[in-house]
């Protein structure tokens, strides 16, 4: 999947150099110069959310920037990710306790989202309407009503707002601009989910992910 993502695409998006570093290239880099990439786990992240059916439920991400609250070395209060969403591939219902984020459709097909507030017991609130800003325009939706983002559009999602999304008609090149990202503590999935699945080594190893610099396997 990473090889496919790195291959030439119609979007012509240029990525930072660490996005294409192999394990051999990492071995030649000075660790101190690239410590931020390792410590903040910048790089590729491929997940099937524990489903075992990546083409149906999964996501390919590239974390480009992040910060670390309380760590003076990494004071950024924001994060940035590229999201590659395959046609008809969904990211399941989840919300973030603290993170506010904008989800953007940078090109490709239609990016479809369903939104619902979390109840006190962290289930879907199917009674409360949802108001969100789509490129500065206020939209009010029924719980779980589908919101369609065409290429160029984006939506702002506040904390504790459940969301799921998928791509229609074609692959979507998505983008996320948000507060600092913390996948270990800030995510709440509606159903039990394996956010960091085991990797089945069916191709020669290529150290594109943060694991190549000694971080936890992603």
From TrEMBL:
Obligatory cofactor(s): Mn(2+)
EC number: 5.3.1.15
Pfam family, one: Lyx_isomer
Family matches, as InterPro entries: D-lyxose_isomer, EcSI_cupin, RmlC-like_jellyroll, RmlC_Cupin_sf
Superkingdom per UniProt: Bacteria
Keywords: Carbohydrate metabolism, Isomerase, Manganese, Metal-binding
Keyword flag Metal-binding: yes
Entry GO MF terms: D-lyxose ketol-isomerase activity; metal ion binding
Catalytic activity: D-lyxose = D-xylulose
Family, similarity comment: Belongs to the D-lyxose ketol-isomerase family.
Official protein name in the record: D-lyxose ketol-isomerase
Organism this protein belongs to: Klebsiella grimontii
């Amino acid at each position: 999947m990473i090889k496919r993502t790195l291959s030439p695409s119609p979007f012509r998006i240029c990525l930072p150099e660490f996005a294409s570093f192999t394990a051999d290239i990492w071995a030649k880099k000075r660790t101190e110069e690239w410590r931020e990439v390792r410590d903040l786990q910048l790089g590729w992240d491929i997940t099937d959310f524990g489903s075992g059916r990546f083409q149906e439920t999964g996501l390919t991400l590239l974390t480009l920037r992040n910060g670390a609250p309380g760590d003076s070395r990494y004071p950024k209060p924001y994060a940035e990710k590229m999201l590659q969403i395959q046609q008809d591939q969904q990211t399941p219902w989840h919300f973030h306790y603290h993170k506010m984020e904008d989800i953007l459709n940078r090109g490709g097909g239609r990016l479809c989202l369903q939104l619902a507030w979390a109840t006190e017991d962290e289930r879907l609130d199917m009674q409360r309407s949802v108001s969100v800003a789509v490129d500065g325009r206020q939209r009010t939706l029924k719980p779980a009503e589908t919101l369609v983002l065409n290429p160029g559009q984006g939506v702002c999602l506040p904390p504790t707002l459940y969301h799921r999304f998928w791509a229609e008609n074609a692959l979507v090149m998505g983008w996320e601009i948000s507060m600092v990202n913390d996948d270990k503590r800030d995510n709440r999935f509606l159903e039990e989910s394996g956010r960091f699945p085991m990797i089945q080594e069916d191709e020669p190893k290529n150290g594109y992910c943060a694991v190549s610099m000694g971080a936890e396997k992603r």
